[in-house]
Amino acid sequence: MKILYAASEALPYASTGGLADVAGSLPKAVKNELGRDSDVRLVMPLYPQVRDKFAEQLELVCEINVRLSWRNQYCGIWKIESDGVIYYFIDNMYYFDRKTLYGCFDDAERFAFFSKCIIELMAAVNFYPDILHGNDWQTALAIIYLKRRFSHLPEYQHISTLFTIHNIDYQGIYDFNILSEVFELPEWDRNIVEYNGMINLLKGAVVCSDMVSTVSNTYAHEILTEYYSSGLHHILRQTEAEGRLTGIVNGIDVGYYNSESDPDIAANFSADDLAGKAEDKAELQKLCGFKVDPETPVIAMISRLAAHKGFDLVRHVLEEIIMKNDVQFVLLGTGETSLEEFFKDLAMRYPAKVCVKLEYNKVLSKKFYAGADMFLMPSKSEPCGLSQMIASRYGAVPIVRECGGLADTIQAYNEYEGTGNGFSFKNYNAHEMMKVIDYALAMYSDKSKWAQLVRNVMKVDFSWNVSAKKYIDIYSALL
Ligand code: GLC
Prior knowledge:
By secondary structure, the protein is α/β, with parallel strands linked by helices. It has helices at 18-34, 48-53, 93-96, 107-124, 140-150, 190-193, 201-208, 217-222, 226-229, 233-241, 275-287, 311-324, 337-349, 362-371, 387-393, 404-409, 430-444, 447-459, 465-478; strands at 2-6, 39-45, 59-68, 71-82, 85-91, 131-135, 160-165, 173-174, 194-195, 198-200, 211-214, 245-247, 298-302, 328-332, 354-357, 374-377, 397-401, 423-425. The chain folds into two domains: 2-251 and 464-478, 3-Layer(aba) Sandwich (Rossmann fold), CATH 3.40.50.2000; 275-459, Rossmann fold, CATH 3.40.50.2000.
């Protein structure tokens, strides 16, 4: 089986969020499962950080020119081979040599170019996959081009497509005046991408793809409703009725996120020997300028500061929580200015109880996970969520809202039976969240119960083993 996985970011090369984790670990897991008879490759843009950090491993495969509407652009194709997977990097400094991965004025053109390159790469390196697996709106046009423009060509005819939605809030919505000028789509393809009077790339990929998946079972159901779909529920209900929609919960790279061997944390530990975790907690308390006290519970949030991550709730009751409890709160992440300001202000007023680090920092995040007792993730919507699983690997007990992948990965703790791997609440309501935090804090003060819970949490299998097989089932069915 030949699979080409297309994504705009992948670890360890470039990352702004969960997509990079998945793109960096799923192809490897699939390769591992399928073994020698398979050929799994990935394609992503060559960003400056890849050029800088991986210069020695990058190998030039070929250089071609790629057309996009009236443009004729250079496209260098580089590769790195790692764990049996070939990673291709699309080189064009004009489009990809930027300070950020996204958020540029010409993102539409940049990722249209990337999408066109995905298709052209197949011919350039003579790798026509059985499956093209696209992810999110940045690769949506590759699925659309393949279906509408290339699938009649003999080399491309047999290629089936799977398109994965990692977060339906990001759809790639643009004005129609760039339909042919930037997206190189003819007038008769207008209806393919048309939604609500705009070009909607995600919608185009959903209608063109043989199969559509999203990153948890619960989210696959949720996006059929107006509340969660960001307007696309009509299209997705149709997709579901056609039997083309499914949900597969993400796994994480349990080799990378491993409290027993992680070199980035102060002390390693395991579910059966938590001594190291106490050291990590003390380190975190020092790092945050808090009193070092094993008895004081540390609640962490590591998240993009975006409204849908549940920050309205936090904003509403966090001050009350820290005032009435002996608790320390730490936050790591960047995002919306108003949220950054809110947390900065709180940290200034309660330096002994609140510490915020406004940055995206993988190494620091692991120190936070390892040092924290509880991990708060009260998302308004959460396609899958990886942090609750990562936190679990480091013995930080997740407190989540029951939605999307959070509902699929966290079972509420039952103190009488000793079952469950976290705490959860149902409604998007600040006081409901506060009540469950209060309950978690009460459980924390019972040492033996808490130790049992931490062990439960750490022992859940969040590896790709099960989910990689499910992807392979889809690939096989598509063949
Ligand atoms: C997006 C989603 C997140 C998911 C990740 C990987 O970042 O918001 O829930 O875990 O993609 O699929």
